[in-house]
Amino acid sequence: MSDLPKLKKKLDTVFSRYIRQRDTADGYCVCISCGKCVPADECDAGHFMGRRYLATRYDEQNVNGQCRYCNR
Questions:
Q1: In this structure, is the dihedral angle defined by the CA atoms of residues 46, 28, 15 and 68, taken in order, positive or negative?
Q2: Cα separation of 32 and 4, whole Å?
Q3: Are 12 and 32 in contact (CB under 8 A)?
């Protein structure tokens, strides 16, 4: 694997952790899509515009805490 894919994967992990932490209060996250309150460890960082679009992949306004059901 070349350096760029490794770096992108590492940044994805760090950015996802940041988003989930940003959108968590008292150990829970409210899903941006359905409003369900889920434990922080069951929360994903859901992208409005898919991750394939590099211009918005790491844009904080494009990514929010989302329950796994809605994200997947």
A1: negative
A2: 31
A3: no
Mean pLDDT of 15-40: 96
d(CA 68, CA 29): 11
In whole angstroms, give the CA distance from residue 37 to residue 3. Answer: 38
* Span of 1-5, 27-31, 51-55, 63-67 with lowest mean pLDDT: 1-5
The SS3 assignment for 18 reads: helix
Per-residue pLDDT at 2: 81
What is the spatial distance between Cα 72 and Cα 69, in angstroms, rounded to a whole number? Answer: 6
Q: Is 26 helix (H, G, I), strand (E, B) or coil?
A: coil
